[in-house]
Amino acid sequence: MINHLVLFGATGDLAGRFLLPALARLLAAGDVSPDLQVVAAAPQEWDDATFREHAAFRLREHAEGLSEDDSRAFLDRLHYQRVDFADLSSVRQAVHGFADTAPVAVYLALPQGLFQTATRALGASGLPHGSRIAVEKPFGEDLAGAVSLNALLSEVLPEAPEAVFRVDHALGMPGTQHVLALRSEDAMPASIWDGAHIEQIEILWEETLGLEGRADFFDRTGALRDVMQNHMIQVLTVVAMELPTPATEKDLRDAKIEVLRSARALPESRRARFTAGTLAVSGTDVTAYVQEDGVDPSRHTQTYAEVTMHVDQPRWSGTRFLLRAGKALANDRKGVLIRFRPESGRDSLWIPMDGPPGSMDGELVAYGAVLLDVLSGSSRLSVSAEESEQAWRVVEPVLHAWARGVVPLLEYPAGSSGPANPFPDR
């Protein structure tokens, strides 16, 4: 178990919303070492006290149920280091501040555009033997970017592939784990988990939230790159893979890669962005996407993406996989919908990503699982180098078609169910 964590991007929304609360809960539950120490690295001119005050506020917001004593115990082990990647001395101080020889887990909770810069700085600073680097998504902005980043990471950490942890917290969400459990039980035998019994599998990531202050990031990313190319593709692999027995980390990874190698996006796809409207859940009025601060309308960024895929394996002959993601929609729906063929005699099956109603927040639970794997040395929830590249291979034809204007950019009012559906069978 690694006892020293360096969190780059510690003042950002990802750290405040998920990583810090998840770490605090892990510590309170005794799941990580009581000797855990955390260096919070960011560009602000802060000190320990200022960052701890910031962290305390985020814990009150997002770590529901954490006692004051547990919160205080966690805050006491947070240390702040101002870091500028152009200043290698600040990077070295963040990494080697604990002890020169102690392995560290470095978590890059940064914008995608900084991954290569940060990785080069870490390589120049020198990481102690046994260290790990965890890289958030999106992993590159296209296939070439993923290949380049993988090459750089292998240079910085040549010890073993497991030293690089490509984060996709969707693998740790309760729904994804439930799919694995369901497929391992007699309740869902392998004999009916195929194209002869299943007509369509829908993987949905629909949100009522709009941009929530992330306009600058989202406008350079879009719905497909933000959640479909990574989270939803990973869920697809878990749903469609040949379940290995025994299900070791390597066997599961190999089975997922086989799905990605055989997956292909069909020409039919849809993209759209929201116009002004009212969110039904909160009653909040939302301005049109193109009027949001930080948005450049000329980028034609989509807030809604729908892609149909086939998995060219004998098991899935005749089954259609539909992936749909969107923001500012009428309802929150994240999960997997299994539509059995009428002649199978089975009703549709809905598997929510957050787990059963009333469950704790699934994403916070997932980030706890990710952090535990990063610190313990497990790669159970890590995406392999080939997976990261194959996922881009699957979606790049869609992105290229959109860039050429082959697929029109539709619109839908915020608070609606999305753009009008031209396909009567869906």
From TrEMBL:
Residues 6-172 form the Glucose-6-phosphate dehydrogenase NAD-binding domain. The keyword Oxidoreductase applies. It comes from the Bacteria. Pfam families: G6PD_C (PF02781), G6PD_N (PF00479). Transmembrane segments: none annotated. The keyword Cell wall biogenesis/degradation does not apply. Residues 180-343, 366-420 form the Glucose-6-phosphate dehydrogenase C-terminal domain. SUPFAM superfamilies: Glyceraldehyde-3-phosphate dehydrogenase-like, C-terminal domain, NAD(P)-binding Rossmann-fold domains. Pathway: Carbohydrate degradation; pentose phosphate pathway; D-ribulose 5-phosphate from D-glucose 6-phosphate (oxidative stage): step 1/3. PANTHER family: GLUCOSE-6-PHOSPHATE 1-DEHYDROGENASE, GLUCOSE-6-PHOSPHATE 1-DEHYDROGENASE G6PD. This is Glucose-6-phosphate dehydrogenase. It comes from Kineosporia mesophila.
